[in-house]
Write a structure and sequence with these properties.
Layout (H helix, E strand, L loop, with lengths): L6 H34 L2 H28 L2 H24 L5 H29 L5 H29 L2 H21 L16 H13 L2 H22 L1 H8 L4 H25 L5 H21 L5 H29 L5 H12 L3 H15 L2 H17 L4 H4 L17
Length: 417
C-alpha cells in the first residue's frame, strides 16, 4: 500500500499543513489563557478551562475512534479542522464586538475538543498507511521536534502579538492556519485500511467492543495506560496553573511565562535531535521509561524552587523538554508498528481516553486546592508519581514486553508484520 520511494511528497504536504494549524492554535490558546489569567486571576477558572477541553475527549474518544475506523479518514480530518476553524471565527467576532465572556471561551474549548476527538486519531492512524514502517520512529521524533520548536516560537510570538494586536486578530490567525491544513486534504488522498474479512461490515457497537478487547488483552499497554491516567490526573492540573505559578509565585508576567514555555521547547528540540541521532535503547520501552524518570526531576524541581529561583525553573522546564521526546516518541512508534491498521483509530482513541481519564477529576479539585494550599503542591505530587512509575516499569515484565504487541483477535485484525 505504501510506495517506499514516493511517499514523502504526499505525506509531508499534509504534515506541513497540520503543523501550520497547530502553530495557529498554540498562539490562540496562549492568548486565551493569558486573557483568563488577567481577567479573573482565579486558579479555579484556569483549571475549569482545561477541564472543559479534556472532557469531550474522555467521554467521546472511544466512540469517535470506532467511527474513524469506519469512515474515510481524510474527510474526517477536513470536517474536524473545519469545525475548529468555525468556532475560532465565532469567538473572534465576539471579541471584535466586545461581547466575549469567560463562558464563551469555555464553550469554544468544548467545541474545539470535539473536533480534536475525531481529528487526532484520524491523523495518527493514517500515518502508518502513508509512511514506511522503518521511518515511523523518525516521523515520531520529527513530530516531537516540531512540538519543541512551537514551544520556543509561539509563546514569545504570542506575547508580542498580544502587545500589538487585539485578541480577535490573534484568533483570525488561528482561522487562517486551519485553512492551510484543510486545503491539501482536498487534493491529496489518504490510504484507507484494508478490510480483514469479506461480507457485510459488523455492527458499530461490536467493533467498539472489539477495540476494547484488543487493548485489554495487551497487558503491558493496559498497565501503561492506567499509569498515564494517574500521572495526567496530577500533571495536567499543575501545568494548567503554570500562568498563576509565574504570576503569583515568581511575581512575573506574560514574558516570563513565554520564557518557561520556550525553555521546554528548546529542551524538546534537543531531546528530539538526540533521539534521532542515538535511536534509543534496543527496546523502545526502556527509552520511554528513562524519559519518564527524567521528567520527574524537572517536575519536582518546579515544585520545590523558591520564588526567586526563576532561572532554576527555566532549567527544570528545559530538562522536561529533553525527556519528553524520550518518553513519548518510542511509545508512538510502538503503537504504529504493533497495531493492525484497521483498528488503529480505536486504539489511538482509547489510549488518549484512558490516559486522560483522571484529568477531569484532578482538574475539578486542582483549582480550589491550589487556591487553598498553593500551586507548587501539585508539582511535588506529580513529580513523585512520575519517578515511581518510571522506575517501577523496569521491574514489570508485561511493560518490558509491551513491544511484542497484543494477542491476535478474530474479527479485529492481526498484528502488523
Amino acid at each position: 500500500m505504501i510506495n517506499p520511494q514516493g511517499w514523502r511528497p504526499r505525506f509531508f504536504t499534509i504534515w506541513v499543513g497540520q503543523q501550520f494549524s497547530l502553530f495557529g492554535s498554540a498562539i490562540a490558546q496562549f492568548a486565551l489563557v493569558w486573557w483568563l489569567t488577567q481577567k479573573t486571576g482565579s486558579a479555579t477558572v484556569l483549571a475549569t478551562a482545561t477541564l472543559v477541553a479534556v472532557l469531550p475527549q474522555v467521554i467521546l474518544g472511544p466512540f469517535a475512534g470506532a467511527l474513524v475506523d469506519r469512515w474515510n479518514r481524510r474527510r474526517v480530518m477536513i470536517a474536524a479542522d473545519g469545525v475548529i476553524a468555525l468556532v475560532s471565527l465565532g469567538l473572534a467576532v465576539l471579541f471584535w464586538a466586545g461581547k466575549a465572556e469567560v463562558w464563551h471561551i469555555f464553550a469554544v474549548k468544548i467545541l474545539r475538543a470535539l473536533g480534536g476527538a475525531f481529528h487526532w486519531p484520524a491523523f495518527a492512524a493514517s500515518v502508518s498507511l502513508m509512511v514506511p514502517r522503518e521511518h515511523l520512529t523518525r516521523v515520531a521524533g520529527l513530530n516531537q521536534t516540531m512540538h519543541g520548536v512551537m514551544n520556543i516560537v509561539t509563546p514569545p510570538l504570542a506575547a508580542l502579538l498580544l502587545a500589538v494586536l487585539p485578541i480577535h486578530g490573534i484568533l483570525a490567525i488561528d482561522v487562517f492556519t486551519a485553512a492551510l491544513a484543510i486545503v491539501p486534504l482536498f487534493f491529496l488522498s489518504i490510504p484507507q485500511p484494508e478490510r480483514t474479512a469479506e461480507g457485510p461490515r459488523v455492527p458499530y457497537f461490536r467493533e467498539l467492543r472489539e477495540g476494547f478487547r484488543y487493548v485489554w488483552t495487551w497487558k503491558g499497554l493496559t498497565i501503561l495506560l492506567f499509569a498515564a491516567a494517574m500521572l495526567n490526573g496530577l500533571l495536567n492540573p499543575a501545568f494548567s496553573l503554570l500562568p498563576l505559578l509565574v504570576a503569583k509565585h515568581f511575581g512575573k508576567g506574560a514574558l516570563e511565562l513565554s520564557w518557561l514555555e520556550a525553555a521546554f521547547g528548546v529542551g524538546a528540540i534537543a531531546g528530539g535531535l538526540i533521539l534521532a541521532a542515538w535511536g534509543g535503547f534496543k527496546k523502545k520501552i526502556h527509552t520511554s521509561l528513562m524519559g519518564i524518570a527524567g521528567m520527574s526531576l524537572g517536575v519536582l524541581t518546579l515544585g520545590l524552587v523558591p520564588g526567586e529561583g526563576l532561572y532554576v525553573a527555566l532549567a527544570a522546564m528545559g530538562l522536561l523538554g529533553v525527556m519528553n521526546p524520550m518518553a513519548n516518541g518510542p511509545l508512538t512508534a510502538i503503537l504504529q508498528t504493533a497495531v493492525a491498521p484497521e483498528v488503529q483509530g480505536r486504539v489511538f482513541s482509547l489510549v488518549s481516553t484512558v490516559a486522560m481519564g483522571m484529568s477531569p477529576l484532578g482538574l475539578a479539585v486542582a483549582g480550589p486546592v491550589a487556591d487553598l494550599l498553593g500551586i507548587q503542591a501539585w508539582y511535588v505530587a506529580g513529580g513523585a508519581a512520575l519517578l515511581l512509575i518510571g522506575v517501577a516499569g523496569f521491574f514489570i515484565p508485561a511493560v518490558i514486553q509491551v513491544e511484542e504487541g497484543p494477542k491476535t483477535l478474530v474479527g479485529v485484525g492481526k498484528k502488523a508484520q
